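Before we proceed, please read the two lines closing this message. Report back on whether the structure tokens fit the sequence:
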Amino acid sequence: MAYRYVEKSHPFVLSPESLDRYLARGWYRMGSNIFTTHFLCFQQQLFSAIWLRLDLETFRFSKSQRKLMRRNALKFEHQVNYRCFTQEKEILYSRYAADFNGRLSSTLRDNLEDYDQESIYNTYEVNIRDRESRELVAASYFDLGNNSVASILGIYEPGYKAHSLGYYTMLLEIAYCLENGFRYYYPGYVVPGYDRFDYKLRIGPCDFYDLPTSSWRPWIDFSPEIGPVEVQRDALSGLQSSIAEFGKESELCIYPLFEARLYHIWDAEYLPYPYVLLLNGMPRQQEDCFVAIYDPREKEYQLLRLLSLEEMRYLFSESYLASFPKRGFVRSLLQMEEIIYSTPDKATMASVIKNMHI
């Protein structure tokens, strides 16, 4: 069974200690669910999702952070409370969403899937008001575990962008963590090559979740080429060149349906890898398909027999599938049937593929 690089859970009960364990494994809240992924697909491109953690045991606010906090404290006042949804916050959310370059849920409640006493999360909020006008200009939401906190959502009045209120609320969340003895602060993921999420690295010397070792390492040790997507692309490109020397044709394709497990309730063994090296052409429904993949966690090549499924239309809309070109993308839903061979050595895998009769 392949490692589940993309997975979702819907717990009915979640203790603070359980949330700590999820977060420590690179999981994160999504609405009322909790999920993990290590690959992302934006605008027909693949990216690595690199999960971050700030260790507060040795953390100190930097000079520039203290300066921002002092300056904003003169213009704004803030409160930290147990989450409470109001019409005022929904209006702020709608203004923020209208200015947001991307898709958001229609309401704040829907975004958090938090309906009064039904939430399993212990969610707190930071509220920021303009001292002069008394207007609510920013709010953020964060979940409390036992010794960990996860920053979930920040919203602000677009007219106040110059005051860095999204970043400011994160600093106030960290201040709350320090005052209340929490050890870890989880801001979510960054995406190398897609700078929209880079602001999270401003909070301090973060660690990143390292897939091969299932451990947290200092961000200073990270480089884009060790991202799980980049590792797969480079390994399969090298394998493709090796088998081409034997006169074997193959096609390196993006497989955007790697996230099928996020949308299906059944425990099916959907292919979890975003890159595939096709060895016998594009998959056809209900027929065997042979591919090579590279597993970035196990650091090995695998030769797989897959089955193309008909149930794709129940998980992904026709319009979504049509958004990907036919060339260079596999738009069929693939299920793992058999690991035929695995090896960490590229030359060995190339030799095995050379001798295949498919």
About this structure: The two ends are 24 Å apart (CA to CA). The chain has two domains: 7-221, 228-354.
